[in-house]
Amino acid sequence: MIDVEECRACPSNVDVASDHIKCSVPEEPDRLGPNAPAALVSVAHVTCARADARAAALMSVIQPPWLVPLVDETDRFVGFVSSSSLATSTWPSRVAILMRLRDLAFGSSLMIHESATVREALHMMAYRRTRWIAVVDSDGKLQGMLSDIDALSALGAIDRT
User: Fold this and answer.
1) Where are the alpha helices (DSSP H) in 79-139?
2) Which domains, ranges and CATH numbers included, belong to the chain?
3) Distance between CA 75 and CA 93 in Å, rounded?
4) pLDDT per residue as tens digits for the range 14-39
5) Which of 5, 88, 115, 124 has the most CB atoms in a 10 Å sphere around its CB?
6) Residue 78 and residue 69: Cα distance in Å, rounded?
7) How many CA atoms lie within 13 A of 14 on its CB side?
């Protein structure tokens, strides 16, 4: 598990509003290769929200841009909600912030089992045209999130320095 700590810049969000933010600093993967389990590369400590919470509650604690996985009362992955999805909602913003996050969610199928390989994760991301997927266990419980950058880093395809 990766602890949340103070850092100067969040690797998953380069446009930050302050000098210091709290973020989960992903461990640098040892170029594990395409057949490594996605769970070894994914960020294990993520901010998630309960699907029944109101959008206003989430917006009051996180500054845009953001992407947050939603979980139900048993920690099973439900989908994602993002600052841009709220902004482009078909509902007026004053109505959207009062809605439950479950009603604003998207991407309920953007998940992969924790034992799936990095290659499979990248294939899914390319096919679904997404940069993030949820990593879940056999019960569908959220175990982490995997970005395309982290997956490509694990392959040695890019250098993060």
Assistant:
1) 83-87, 93-96, 101-104, 118-128
2) 32-155 (3.10.580.10)
3) 28
4) 433 444 334 444 444 445 788 889 98
5) 124
6) 8
7) 0
Q: Element (H or E) spanning 57, and its range?
A: helix 55-59
Query: Is 142 exposed, middle or buried (CB count within 10 Å of its CB: 0-12, 13-18, 19+)?
Result: buried
Contact present, 121 and 149 (Cβ < 8 Å): no
Do residues 22 and 2 make contact, with C-beta atoms less than 8 angstroms apart? no
87-90, long-range: CB < 8 A, 24+ apart: none
Residue 10 has pLDDT above 90, yes or no: no
Structure pTM? 0.72
CA 64 – CA 5 distance, rounded (Å): 20
